[in-house]
Amino acid sequence: MSTQNLLPYGLGSPELVEFQSSYFVCKEICDDLARLAALLEGNGFRLRLESAYRPFEKQLSIWNRKAAGELPLLDEFGKPMQRPADEEELMYAILTWSALPGASRHHLGTDIDVVDANACPEGYEVQLTPDECTGMFAKFHEFLDARFAANEAFGFNRVFVPGRGKIKPEGWHIAHLPTSRRLLEGFSLETLRGIYEKSDIACKDAILANLPQLAEDYIYPYFI
To answer: What does pTM read for this prediction?
Structure first.
């Protein structure tokens, strides 16, 4: 399989541009992202990226560290929870807030996690939680919601919203949908299965046994 065909899985060699320090995005979205940043700045906000492109290995590291208890597991309310001993229960606990490696939209370079830098208290470490979205970043997200509703966000919109799939809503996550749709056209669940079979992903047996249903609940609903 060519490296281009592996891009949806976080593999291959995507054409990336450093949009903010240490945060890389797909070259194709840069102009629209700059326009969105300028719109926000003109209305008193300052767009800051907290996450952007992630290769497969980085998403795999996040997944495996959560499985091992090296990163916190959060419940549906965004609060720390105990690590389940059962492999399948652990898999679903991680999926509450983290995408499966190889199926994360961050692999595309079209999706970013964003906050308003102007609203961050000095020295505050952003956690990307629902409480932040409805608290210190509430005005920022209200402004974005209005732009999304009016189709005035240069192709960007939210993906992880209430009622869509089983991943909890992520107000901080936005995507450049025209570009991501094109990149996802060649996605294959069987290719993803083959990647898992050769990887050292935690909860591998549970993932492979449940992959078709996982796709229906945690992958395909977000391919919009």
So the answer is: 0.92
What does the radius of gyration of the chain's CA atoms come to, in whole angstroms?
Answer: 17
Neighbours of 7 (CB within 10 A): 21
Report how far residue 25's alpha carbon sits from residue 28's, in angstroms, rounded to the nearest whole number: 8
* DSSP label at residue 105: G
Dist CA 180 CA 52 (whole Å): 13
pLDDT (tens digit, 9 = 90+) per residue, 43-95?
999 999 999 999 999 999 999 999 999 999 988 888 899 999 999 999 999 99
Tokens at 44, concatenated: 């008193």
Give φ, ψ of 106 to 5 degrees: -65, -15
Question: How far, in Å, CA of 5 to CA of 35, rounded?
Answer: 29
- In the chain, the largest separation of any two C-alpha atoms, in whole Å, equals 50
Q: Would you call 49 helix, strand, or coil by DSSP?
A: strand
d(CA 51, CA 38): 19
Residue 156 clears pLDDT 80, i.e. is over it: yes
CA-wise closest residue to 140 among 170, 110, 168, 118: 118
Q: How far is CA 82 from the centre of its chain?
A: 23
Neighbours of 77 (CB within 10 A): 11
- Two tokens at 126? 């952003």
User: In degrees rounded to 5, what are phi and psi of residue 2?
Assistant: -70, 160
SS3 content of the chain, % helix, strand, coil (to 5): 45, 15, 45
User: In this structure, are residues 20 and 30 in contact, taking their beta carbons and an 8 Å threshold?
Assistant: no
Structure-token pair, residue 25: 């995005």
DSSP H stretches of helix in the chain: 30-41, 56-67, 87-95, 130-134, 138-149, 177-183, 189-197, 204-214
